[in-house]
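Same chain as my last thread, 327 residues:
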Amino acid sequence: MEIRDDKEVVMTIDRLKVEFRNDDHHVTALRNVSFKLHKGEIVGLVGESGCGKSLTSHSVMKLLPKNAHIIDGDIVIDGKSIVTTSENEMRKIRGDLISMIFQEPMTALNPLVTVGKQIEEMLILHKKISKKERYEIIINLLKSVGLPEPETRYKQYPFELSGGMRQRVMIAMSLACSPKVIIADEPTTALDVTIQAQILDLLKDIREKQGTAFLFITHDMGVIADMADRVAVMYAGQIVEMATVDELFENPAHPYTKGLLNSIPDLTKDVREELPSIPGSVPDLKSLSKGCPFEDRCSCSIERCRQENPFLTKIRESHEVACWNVD
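reply #2:
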């Protein structure tokens, strides 16, 4: 799906900075994170575990741990800045303007409340409609996400459903109030390949029919290739590359992105060949240097990389990279 520059912007993250504070220690976990999400667009947020993907999504939902704080930047959803909003205001925004599909539905759903009642809570909070209207909406939602016998599912508890069914319930819940943005945080990680493909097709269908924008968080580059319009690559709490999905896979510019793509198994090669890997390990956020966080793992770093942290710079149309030695 082509996303034009003039298409409606539904979410903007601008120079977001998040810190964890414990006693006298401050750890910067997100630094200068910026991107826009347009109506009907799927932006993939990729990177290895601990890079800040989920922290970004929790910042947008304002579901941060007590010791985590947004200390700079802004988050604007449908024209409304949410950084300084109260918790009462956020309750009105969550589920209405923006929803989230969590990685593991069994922990996100309440095991003591039936599926129908959990979805109904969203409608009670955001819609002034009768109980009969709520029931009809929920049944239609359960049908729309491909759940068989929705009247039966309405009365069931989460533990009575399979993993794929629970994830469909989570998707139905996220759609209840027709939000403009849905954050999908590794929504298929715990599912088998067949169910995973069904869930991904369902999300694409929702995007096409409703114009919903998705922030799709994953570590799986194969899923990104199938789902995303644009891709933001994160490393050590910052975005190091942003491009359209075709541009990123055909012309990766950042050494970290190249390493991620090179580490994808190639089924056409000899299975006995050693799989390429990125040398070194993820840096400790407590002791990051003033330079590029990827410098000590990079084979083409220069002196400037050790002294200054690069910022995102446009190198092609719809392609930005944070690297001093991109050439």
